[in-house]
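Regression test case RT-17, inverse folding.

Input:
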C-alpha cells in the first residue's frame, strides 16, 4: 500500500458536494484525472468531503517568509501509517477538555524527559487530521511554532519584523488553528518569544499546547503574574513497568517489520528494565524505545541477523 497526495480544484469538490446534498446521498463518487490520462475513481463519504473542503479553505496558507518558523504540523501526520497512541487516554481527554474551553484554552504538558509529552501532541494532531476530535476542531489545523529557528535571527530589527509577522498571521487565523510549541522553555529565552506566547494565550485565545518540565513551568510560567493565572497544566506521569508494554507496542511492530524478526515479550521486558538503568530509576517509554533502536543499530553494524 502507498499513500498518494493529489492537488484537486476545490470548485470541482464543491460541485460534487452540492449535487450529493441535493440528492440526499450519504456517499458520492469522485472522478479524478491524473497526469492528463490516468483516471482515479473512488467513493467518499459526503461528511468527509465537506470536511475536506472546509479544511482547505479555512486556513490561509502560511506566508513563504514564515515557513521556516511556522509549520502546518497536522499535514505532516501520515495517519495511514501513524498508529494511535496507547496508554495515555486520560491525559489526552484532559488536553481536549482544556483546549475546548472558550477562555483559558491552553494546556502545558508537564513531565520528565522522554516520558511521552511529545507523543501526546502527535496524537492530538493525528486525531484532528482524521476527524476524531471534538467537533469544533474538525476544521482547525495544528501549527508548530519553531522558536529555536526564530532565535537564530541575529539582527534585532529582523527578529522584531518576523515576530510581528507571526503575530499578525496568528491573530488573523486565531479561529482556525491550534498552536503547538515543543519545549516552552524557549519562549522565555527572548522577550520577543515571550510576547508571542503571552499574546496567543491571553489576547488571541488561540488553543495552545506546549511541553515543559515541572521546574520550568513553576519558575517561568506559574509565578509570572502576567500569564500564570491564564494557564492550565496536565501532568504526564512516569508509567509503571507493566504500563510500558502497550505504550511501545506500535514501535515494536515497526521494528519487527523493518527487521523481519519477532520480538518476544521476554526481550521487550528486558529492554524496559535496561532502560530503567540508563539515566534514572524511571522507565519512560522513550528510554525503552531508545534502547531498542540502539540495539538493532548495533546488531546491524556487527553483521547480525
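Golden output:
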Amino acid at each position: 500500500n502507498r499513500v498518494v497526495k493529489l492537488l484537486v480544484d476545490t470548485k470541482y469538490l464543491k460541485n460534487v458536494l452540492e449535487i450529493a446534498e441535493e440528492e440526499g446521498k450519504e456517499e458520492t463518487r469522485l472522478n479524478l484525472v491524473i497526469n492528463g490520462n490516468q483516471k482515479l475513481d473512488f467513493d467518499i463519504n459526503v461528511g468527509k468531503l465537506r470536511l475536506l473542503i472546509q479544511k482547505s479553505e479555512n486556513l490561509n496558507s502560511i506566508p513563504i517568509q514564515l515557513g521556516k518558523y511556522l509549520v502546518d504540523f497536522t499535514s505532516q501526520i501520515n495517519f495511514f501509517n501513524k498508529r494511535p497512541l496507547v496508554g495515555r487516554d486520560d491525559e489526552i481527554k484532559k488536553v481536549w477538555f482544556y483546549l475546548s474551553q472558550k477562555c483559558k484554552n491552553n494546556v502545558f504538558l508537564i513531565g520528565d524527559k522522554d516520558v511521552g509529552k511529545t507523543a501526546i501532541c502527535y496524537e492530538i494532531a493525528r486525531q484532528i487530521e482524521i476527524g476524531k476530535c471534538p467537533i469544533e476542531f474538525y476544521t482547525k489545523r495544528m501549527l508548530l511554532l519553531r522558536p529555536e529557528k526564530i532565535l537564530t535571527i541575529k539582527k534585532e530589527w529582523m527578529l522584531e519584523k518576523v515576530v510581528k509577522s507571526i503575530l499578525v498571521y496568528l491573530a488573523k487565523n486565531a479561529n482556525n488553528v491550534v498552536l503547538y510549541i515543543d519545549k516552552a522553555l524557549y519562549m522565555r529565552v527572548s522577550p520577543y518569544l515571550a510576547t508571542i506566547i503571552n499574546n496567543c494565550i491571553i489576547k488571541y485565545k488561540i488553543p495552545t499546547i506546549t511541553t515543559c518540565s515541572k521546574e520550568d513551568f513553576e519558575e517561568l510560567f506559574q509565578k509570572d503574574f502576567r500569564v500564570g493565572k491564564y494557564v492550565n497544566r496536565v501532568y504526564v506521569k512516569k508509567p509503571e513497568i507493566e504500563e510500558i508494554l502497550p505504550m511501545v507496542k506500535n514501535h515494536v511492530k515497526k521494528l519487527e517489520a523493518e527487521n523481519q524478526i519477532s520480538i518476544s515479550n521476554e526481550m521487550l521486558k528486558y529492554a524496559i528494565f535496561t532502560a530503567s538503568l540508563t539515566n534514572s530509576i524511571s522507565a519512560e517509554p522513550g528510554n525503552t524505545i531508545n534502547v531498542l533502536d540502539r540495539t538493532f543499530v548495533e546488531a546491524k553494524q556487527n553483521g547480525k541477523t
